[in-house]
Specification:
The protein has 89 residues and is an alpha+beta fold. 35% of the residues lie in helices and 25% in strands. It has one domain: Glutaredoxin (3-Layer(aba) Sandwich), CATH 3.40.30. Strands 2-1-3-4 form a four-stranded mixed β-sheet, covered by helices on one side.
């Protein structure tokens, strides 16, 4: 039986299709998954008008799935991500 600590944290990357910063964040997260247990999904804000209003020019934005907390935007901020992991564990 899995305990709550065994369930990986899930993040959402809000981005856009033609966004080089988005691709950089996705690549950095993919590499980090080799060291840290977490999941992430990518959502293209251009398919969701309400997300364009929220995140528009801020993409990419890394948000926690569970509580919708923004961890960082534009670039993967490792200090902010480490602080989030420390806070929840």
């Amino acid at each position: 039986m899995m305990s709550e600590s065994d369930i990986p944290i899930t993040f959402i990357v809000y981005g856009r299709k033609e966004c080089h910063l988005c691709q950089e964040m996705i690549l950095a997260l993919s590499k980090l998954q080799k060291q840290v247990l977490f999941r992430f999904q990518v959502i293209d804000i251009d398919h969701h008008p309400e997300l364009i209003v929220l995140y528009g020019d801020k993409v990419p934005v890394l948000v926690t799935l569970a509580d919708k907390e923004e961890v960082c935007h534009y670039h993967l901020d490792m200090a902010a991500l480490d602080a989030y992991f420390t806070k929840i564990r």
